[in-house]
Amino acid sequence: MRWTFWRRRTADDFSNEVDAHLAMETERLVRSGMSPDDAAFAARRAFGNVTATREQFHEARTSARFERLVLDVRYTLRGMRRAPGFTAVAVLSLALGIGASAAIFSTINELLLKNLPVADPDRLVMLRADDTAAGGEWGYASFSYDLYRNLREQARGFSDIVAIGVLDRFNVSLGGPGGGLDPARTRVAIVSGNYFSVLGIGAARGRAITPADDRVPGRHPVAVMSDGYRRRRFAPSDDPIGRTLAFNGTTYDVIGVMPASFSGDWVGRPIDIWVPMMMEAQVMTERPGLENANFLRIIGRLSPGVSLQQAERDAGQLVKRLRDEKIGPRRLSLVERFGLAPAGGGYSPQRESYGTSLLILAVAVALVLLIACANVANLLLARSEARQREMALRLAIGAGAGRIARQVITESVVLGVIGGALGVLLSVWVTGVVGSVIGGSPIPVDSRNAAQPLTLSLHPDARVLAFAAGLSVLTAIAFGLAPALRAASVSIASLTSRGEASSGTGRRHPLSRLLVVLQVALSLPLLISAGLFARSMHNLRSVDLGFDRQHTLLVWTSPGQTTRQGSQLAAFAHTVVARVSALPGVLSASVASNGVLTGISDQSGGRSENAKAEGVTPKPGVLGISLVVSPKYFETLGLHLVEGRLFTDADGAGPPRVAVVNETMRRALFGDVDPIGRHYYLLPRDAAAQTQVIGVVSDVKWGSPRDRARMIEYVPVSQASAQLNNMVVLVRAVGAAETVASRVRSELAAIDPGLPVIGLDTLEQQLDDVLAQDRLLAGLAVAAGLVVAILTCLGLYGVISYVTARRTREIGIRVALGATRSGVIAMVIGESGKLVIAGIVLGVPLTLALTRYASSRLYNVSAGDPVYVAAAIALMLAVAFVASLLPAWRTSRVDPMDALRAE
Amino acid sequence: MSTRTTPERASILQGTLDLLILRTLARGPHHGHGIALAIQHSSNHALLVDHGSLYPALQRMESRGWIRAEWGVSDNNRRARFYELTKAGRKQLAAEAGEWRRLADAVSSVLGAEFAGG
């Protein structure tokens, strides 16, 4: 090593200097008349202790401190090799604790903490409509271009306001060399001209879109691409500036490339291409016209000095007024409240829906980490007891108490660092799992964005690594402090008194016992929640959804992007149904305007209080869904007819408008009256063309197993074909749904090679996706439960075997006095039982306090369910029993003569 | 470290050794042995420099940047490590000298006239 070389040279250098001094002094003394021998001796005497001086030189060097550290670390590593069992358990405990914490932290970091790489992100806000009163899970953020324009002109408190809409296109082709059609999904954002300047992001190459690029509808065919898209479509050496991109019949000049750090403001949805808002009609050819653009998010930058609350008050009133003037999407009529949300972290519906789960997990991993620390502290304590003689010996040969304490602290820090490093590796893996579960959860299918996984960049960044490093050091201090203090207080006397073998009852180690009690108390909430979440997951999986999930395949397509419109869509649907039904292995096939188990609260059917039913007043407070389906839909999904009839081909495009409704809708709208043949409408806009009920079918859990009962009206394809812009093909297979997947896919390609197939899922997969959060919680809760059960077992084992070993003599006397072997075993087990019961007494109230916060994520099981509390207590007692079996057995073998002689 | 006291010569007060070394080097570069002799000479042999503590002190001052050192050849053709004052060293000398004078004055005024020249 370099530093060793350097140290030797300077030490030699110092020696040379001292030698030179001695020679000069000797010479001087000889000159003054001394004999050479006397002079040399006198020179040495005048110098004093040459070796001590050299040592002093050594100590003073900063490298010496480093050298000491290296010695300590080497000594520690040697000690670890000598005690591999101890080391493995300690390092593994820490790796689990730190790894789990780092994984959850990096997920929280990505979803909750990270800011967009924009200028002054704290001043960005986003307009939101709060529809929680209407049963939505979060406020939605889609508005119209009209609303944006009016807001931008009239709102006070903003330095500027931008609008952005995101659409998926499947037919983008690149002009020039190496170009061609890209059949994959390309995410296109239409942005107002001020988007980039207000956010404060410049292009990495070329230039960004400016207000000058956004003046005249259809006249600004320019595009900015993301760095990710550039890498996907271009060789590294190619310059994309000046090349062209074409889709939906329009060719765009590439004017810029964004930096790699910015891929849009939607977390998990990286944008490929940005084009000016004025190109809306060219991008969204299936429903052109900015007057139809009801899917824009509106982001504002607050003026200096204006608080979010001030701006929110003003903007809220303004939007309400605009809404009342019939500006903005129609569905705003249901919204009670408009607000502003911080937008500096980007747009992320997941943030809110996963917030609770992530906090639950954060508490869980914090508990695991505490338990791991307690475990390692206990191991170190037990080890330091065993090493008392070693410490005393080192003290006796001249090490200071401070030096010994430093050695012990070095040991904990080395453990912490190794555990932390392993933990980071572990966290990369855990984060991958967490990320894929969160990323895989379903996304709303609406007219522009199909169901698709999130692209989360969950890799450890500097913040996560700093977190893990800080955690390692903190934990090292937490678990290393007690052993260090104890080591520093060792006395040489313990060398002569033969350790403390005679110290008796083991009551001398309150700290170890306290740590075990603490471990048990902290484990209990984790064990109980593992049970609760697993039960909840089981409940969710076994809910009767009202349809057959075993054999059904869903294919998400977008015929709206194939230039078909109106009746062409109906004809296309008809062809698809006919050809897919004819495939071998297919029992029946149908199409619908939306799938099931999307996890999203569909609002298309309004609310029962706004509906009207012939001759009856509807019961208020029930949400509705409106679906367009082909006749075989009910058969394909396995819904059964309750009253009336289903569709036939006779239900054509013309009047009368007819619909099949579900039982909930029948109860909400018609009460006890026979609904067949009666007219109704769900949305006031349909008041002129009322619909007649022809049949009633069974209820389903439409969005997720958690869904409350919803009204559903099923409208035949022939009467509402425009809503088939996005079309879900439902296929019921004879066997497992997967068996027909590839056949269905190739048949669709044969019907129209240009049909965008956005996704293909079995209902089982859809259910998995909808339950992603519950799976995540249940999986991690069970894993955490297992880990802490093992850690607690190890901790108890360590303490009990240590304490009983200490009591060998006492037990020997007991045996000599007639105690039976089983009596001794019972005594040892009773010892650990006492600790566990103390832990349980502390843990139960703690659990009840903590699990209350988890109850919002539980399904059909109460947070305080005594069954799970009892099961966890039983498990803890079993763990205590197992942990003390071996020490108990060992103790029972004590030969009283040996035990007494050992003294 | 052994502190030897010779009856007829005062040993150097803790902390003043640095000041003396700095002052000596202000006259020009010196090796360690030369510094020790120079201090003895200029104090008319009233002060004895403990050779054993001189070198650690030089080492310390070098690492603080007050002095720098280089191997060279002495008057009688011996290889020796020569020390010279740095800019920081000069500043330090000024500061320590002022400090010392204040202390000496203070001690003198406490002692008063009757113990003057004791």
- Largest sheet features of chain B: 3 strands, antiparallel
Can you tell me the overall shape of chain A?
globular
Q: What's the tally of helices of chain A? A: 26
Rounded mean pLDDT of chain B is 81
Summarize the structure.
Chain A contains 26 helices and 23 strands. By secondary structure, chain A is an alpha+beta fold.
Write up what this structure looks like.
The complex is a heterodimer of chains A (903) and B (118). Chain A is of the alpha+beta class and 903 residues long. Chain A folds into four domains: 59 residues; 224 residues, no CATH class; 320 residues, no CATH class; 215 residues, no CATH class. In chain A, helix 5 runs antiparallel to helix 14. Chain B has 118 residues and is α+β, with helices and mostly antiparallel strands. Chain B has one domain: Orthogonal Bundle (Arc Repressor Mutant, subunit A), CATH 1.10.10. Chain B is built from four helices and five strands. Chain B has a three-stranded antiparallel beta sheet with strand order 2-5-4. A two-stranded parallel sheet of chain B has the order 1-3. Chain B is globular and about 50 Å long. Chains A and B meet through helix 1 and helix 3 of A and helix 2, helix 3 and strand 5 of B.
